[in-house]
Amino acid sequence: MKTFIPHTALQEVVLNISTVEAHLPIGTRSAVSPYPPTPYQSLIFYCRNPISMNKNREVEFTQQPLSVLLGPQVSRVNIKVHNRLKAIRVDFLPGAMFRILKVPMYELLDEGFNAGDLFGSKMKILTEQLSEITALEVGKRLVENFLLERLLSINKQQPFDKALRALYINDGNLSITKTASLSCLSIKQFERKCKERIGMNPKSYARILKFSKAYRLHEAFPEMDWISIAYKSGYYDQMHLIKDFKIFAGANPSEIEKQLRNTAIKMQKDLNF
């Protein structure tokens, strides 16, 4: 995975743009990898080779569209890659997807959607163009140009957006009282706006921020022990980390460790920390 800083004009809404190209080992036709919640709403473009997905503990996998919008995620899914993975991923800052789409994020909670259904005909044209590219760098420029055009009609940034960014930067280790104060809203107003703009209450979002950092640390540094991961992720102790893994990953840390050892591809190890 290569991660790029987005165009200057996009940086108030886009965290980063990544290109991914991976081939499965010879003789391996497909690989399944766990994909628990991240703190991002994302656009993912699969160039020619779509992935399949199921929700944890389901048996059947469903092929995904070539362009997918991931709404706020609170449950684990499993991703099946077929032969190779060639994709472009855009991770948005918290609250940015609401500003772009003007759709309450609770309506997109825990689901992936065909991006063309939400972004319209220009997204469908972009998806067709991306299916024909030979170099991911070209695709990245096409995606940036699409987003720059979309930015012309975006709602202006508010103190609320800056407060959410502060919560994100601090990996959820910022009190709700302090975060609400930064947004210039009462706690109740802040909680209502969070439901609308990130799809959940701020306490749940802060919890996913901590969990996601712990999970990505393990994918990126599998030799790191769980006590160190808990400490680096802001957990009070290892028991709180184990509890969150059971809720968000559907398994305790040792079970996740085994699942990741047995897969040929890891989907989150290169995501931004």
List the helices and strands and how they pair.
Layout: E1 2-4, E2 14-23, E3 30-35, E4 41-46, E5 52-55, E6 62-63, E7 67-70, E8 77-82, E9 84-92, H1 96-101, E10 112-114, H2 115-119, H3 121-130, H4 136-150, H5 159-169, H6 176-182, H7 187-198, H8 202-220, H9 226-232, H10 238-248, H11 253-261
Antiparallel strand pairs: 1-2, 2-9, 3-8, 4-7, 4-9, 5-6, 5-8, 7-10
Explain what this protein looks like in three dimensions:
Helix 3 packs antiparallel against helix 4, helix 6 crosses helix 7 and helix 8 packs across helix 9. Strand 5 and strand 6 form a beta hairpin. The chain has a six-stranded antiparallel β-sheet with strand order 1-2-9-4-7-10. By secondary structure, the protein is an alpha+beta fold. It has a domain of 152 residues: Sandwich (Jelly Rolls). The mean pLDDT is 93. The protein contains eleven helices and ten strands.
What is the gist of this entry?
With 273 residues, the chain is α+β, with helices and mostly antiparallel strands.
Which percent bin holds the helix content? 40-55%
| Mean pLDDT figure | 93
Poorly predicted spans:
none
**Fold-level CATH name of the domain at 2-153:** Jelly Rolls
CATH class category of the domain at 2-153: Mainly Beta
- Helix/sheet category: alpha+beta
Task: Note the run of SSEs as H and E.
Answer: EEEEEEEEEHEHHHHHHHHHH
Task: Estimate what percentage of residues fall within beta strands.
Answer: 15-25%
Number of strands: 10
Could you give a short account of the major beta sheet?
Answer: 6 strands, antiparallel
Gyration radius, in Å: 18 Å
Can you count the helices? 11
Order of strands, widest sheet: 1-2-9-4-7-10
CATH architecture of the domain at 2-153: Sandwich
Shape descriptor: globular
Distance between the termini: 14 Å
CATH homologous superfamily heading of the domain at 2-153: Jelly Rolls
